[in-house]
Design goal:
The protein is α/β, with parallel strands linked by helices. It is built from eleven helices and eight strands. The chain has helices at 17-30, 48-55, 81-86, 97-103, 107-119, 132-136, 140-152, 181-198, 201-206, 217-224, 241-248; strands at 6-10, 38-42, 61-64, 91-94, 123-128, 164-167, 208-212, 231-234. Strand 7 (208-212), helix 10 and strand 8 form a beta-alpha-beta unit. The protein starts with 5 loop residues before the first strand and ends with a helix.
């Protein structure tokens, strides 16, 4: 089965609205609209509306960086899936390691966010990955198995008809370190087998599994040559239009 590559920019807490629009002007000028890869931008919440308006009618999709699991209510500081849908989001990042490590998100809250995304037809980009200590102890497979199994428990099939998984080794995020292509392939092949066991082989074969962790124009081609690497979730290198374009045109 041919899976269309997906290259997603996670801007994290960067890019004011003027900066975001300037970035998009440069990016769109360098895109033909018929790229091999699907392109997704995940700006901060403050720029979502402006970015959505600018990208409306283009081939570039919009993602949110997080979502709450209720549609409305007394949840100060949270953003609901209904609000994201109204802003034109198609994708939402769920379970990023920074959310888990810095803000106390758990596999259970990740599962609730996944269910909410499915309820409003937002495609989740589900992040999983091991720490440096886990990798050195040989626990990579056990860690990502636990994360994805608990996150997807009880959600098959309806909320999982559309799903993207991002394998992001925590030790490679923002550190300049990158998993070797063999390490990425090994982990992502394991994830695909795990998805087939949890759901079904058809869904596993069509699910795009991205690599994230210090992705750059210099390493994207080697990563994309791996059979189970279907794209990238890009952090720091997505803040420069030239750098991000270099990744898109791998």
């Amino acid at each position: 089965m041919t899976r269309r590559p997906l290259i997603a920019a996670n801007w994290k807490m960067h890019q004011t609205v003027p900066e975001a629009l300037t970035f998009l002007d440069h990016l769109l000028a360098d895109l033909s609209g018929d790229e091999e890869a699907e392109v997704v931008i995940a700006p901060p919440f403050t720029a979502l509306e402006a970015v959505g308006r600018r990208l409306d009618g283009t081939s570039v999709q919009v993602a949110a960086q997080n979502v709450y699991w209720e549609d409305q209510g007394a949840f100060t500081g949270e953003v609901s899936p209904l609000m994201l849908k109204q802003l034109g989001c198609r994708y939402v990042i769920i379970g990023h390691s920074e959310r888990r490590q810095l803000f106390g998100e758990t596999d259970e809250t990740v599962r609730r966010r996944l269910r909410a995304a499915g309820r409003h037809e937002l495609t989740p980009i589900l992040c999983v990955g091991e720490t440096k200590e886990d990798r050195e102890a040989g626990r990579t497979d056990d860690v990502i198995t636990g994360q994805i199994s608990r996150a997807l428990e009880g959600l098959y099939p309806d909320p999982l008809r559309e799903l993207v998984v991002a394998y992001e080794p925590v030790w490679a995020i923002g550190t300049g370190l990158t998993a070797t292509v063999d390490q990425a392939q090994e982990a992502q092949a394991h994830l695909r087998l795990l998805l087939a066991r949890i759901t079904d082989k058809g869904l596993a074969n069509r699910t795009r599994i991205l690599y994230g962790g210090s992705v750059k124009p210099e390493n994207i081609l080697a990563l994309m040559a791996m059979p189970d690497v279907d794209g990238a979730l890009v952090g720091g290198a997505s803040l420069s239009a030239d750098s991000f374009t270099g990744i898109i045109h791998f």
